[in-house]
Design the sequence.
């Protein structure tokens, strides 16, 4: 069997603060694979819509914005329509609105196409998001669902960006609720995902485990 770029993917899904970015980046560096943060794509579209003062409830208009935008998401830079929005997309107002934009089916369809094209261009990669295992790369060779208790996830965000742990926990809960109950590709485990609770595991331990699994599956797949 030949493993193509849509299969040579490590799909990492899970709710906010579960450790996806840290683990996905470390794993991609270990394996020499490219890394894609699909959440940054939805955040950049949200930022652009807010910059233009568009009505986020106007689904058609927002979807057209997503189709027309020139978007580059790299390892440490996010550029939309020529503007570096790497820092701006992490601001509280973007975070508060991104779930609404991410529930727009027109936006999701366009992002999905771009994510699949990205994998073709790069020969696969480590890709993090919410629907990567379930919808975007259902044939991924390794599917991972990371989780942790709500308190631990909120505390991680506070450690990264400051703020009040109770307020952040409430905001995360609200976002997870929207992300997991939307009709189009909600946040969910795939039946064949490996579920890892990162609450009581070190980053290195999880990365080691995933590296071994990936290598074994590639050997299996190529034999
Ligand atoms: O991972 P993040 O917090 O940067 O994601 C931002 C938002 O985008 C989050 O509310 C869920 C949404 N998202 C999504 O719906 N599908 C993805 N593949 C990635 C993120």
Sequence:
């Amino acid at each position: 069997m030949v493993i193509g770029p849509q299969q040579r993917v490590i799909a990492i899904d899970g709710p906010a603060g579960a450790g996806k970015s840290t683990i996905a980046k470390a794993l991609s560096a270990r394996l020499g694979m490219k890394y894609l943060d699909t959440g940054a794509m939805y955040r950049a579209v949200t930022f652009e819509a807010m910059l233009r003062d568009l009505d986020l409830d106007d689904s058609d208009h927002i979807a057209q914005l997503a189709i027309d935008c020139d978007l580059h998401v790299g390892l440490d830079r996010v550029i939309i329509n020529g503007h570096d929005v790497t820092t701006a997309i992490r601001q509280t107002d973007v975070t508060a609105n991104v779930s609404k934009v991410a529930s727009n089916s027109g936006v999701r369809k366009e992002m999905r196409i771009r994510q699949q094209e990205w994998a073709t261009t790069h020969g696969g990669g480590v890709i993090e998001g919410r629907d990567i295992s379930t919808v975007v790369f259902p044939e991924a060779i390794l599917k991972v669902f990371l989780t942790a208790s709500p308190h631990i996830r909120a505390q991680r965000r506070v450690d990264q960006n400051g703020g009040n742990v109770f307020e952040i926990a409430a905001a995360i809960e609200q976002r997870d609720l929207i992300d997991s109950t939307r009709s189009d590709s909600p946040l969910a485990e795939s039946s064949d995902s490996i579920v890892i609770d990162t609450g009581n595991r070190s980053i290195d331990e999880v990365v080691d485990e995933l590296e071994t699994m990936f290598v074994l599956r590639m050997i299996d797949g190529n034999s």
